[in-house]
């Protein structure tokens, strides 16, 4: 069996050894020396220089370039800087697509990968994870705090207001997939995620006021808030559409569920409902249908509890209700 090129080896490290697009994506990002360096990680600049038979100075210069491109991640401990590659395909996708100098060819390779190869890998991811990596957070205005328990992890406003630092980056899914005209610059980075973004130059720092305005813009556009599936603030709040999102697009076609629902589900006041169909049109997931005999019906299995149906109802006939215990959110 012939030796793998560093491009092929990296694809294998991303659990996709037969990918035809990952090597092409990597070629858009690196020189051959950088590709060799990538598969030699982890290590300090000195350790990587020994592994690749290069000078420390040249390795350090390449690492700085690869950091900007989203290929090299650093962990600083005292005077030591340890460099590592992307941990998995999702991190490789999200980090490299915010590379400020990304070329159209590079972005197009990512689109083709997500359309043709990602669904197969996603099935494997789903089977390996005990819980989804992300979860939906409902639109703030969809929940009446006088009726249900609203915890900090359930509130995007609380996640923003408790953050020590904030930044905004482009939505990598809409940037590469181009399936809708939803706003692009709406992916919020929080705390360590923001620090990484600002240092790397892949986004810009914002304050809480602008972050809340971005969330309002996303809500108006019908986008769904998604964050890390944990009780604390995590590193990001994505604002996702159902057509471009790497998780939602699979879920809508009965593929693997890579995102957990929120703790809430819509309840319909049929006396107040005018059966206008706005909620049905607004739902990305086909979870709400308008039936002649029953009026508005919620499919509990399909609903992710995003609240878009509630905030768009002209009659205020939909209210989000708490259906899962707080312990549903890990941690």
In words, what does this structure look like?
The protein has 331 residues and is α+β, with helices and mostly antiparallel strands. The chain has two domains: 6-126, Orthogonal Bundle (Arc Repressor Mutant, subunit A); 129-323, no CATH class. The chain contains 15 helices and 13 strands. The chain is elongated, with a radius of gyration of 22 Å. The relative contact order is 0.11.
Domain tally? 2
Helical fraction equals: 25-40%
Largest sheet: spatial strand order: 6-4-5-8-7-3-9
* Terminus-to-terminus distance: 46 Å
Shape: elongated
Largest sheet: 7 strands, mixed
Question: Regions with pLDDT < 50 over 5+ consecutive residues?
Answer: none
Overall average residue pLDDT: 94
Q: What is the CA-based Rg, rounded?
A: 22 Å
Count of alpha and pi helical runs: 15
Query: Which range does the strand content fall in?
Result: 15-25%
Please state the structural category: alpha+beta
Number of strands: 13
Q: What's the order of the H and E elements?
A: HHHHHEEHHHEHEHEHEHEEHEEHEEHE
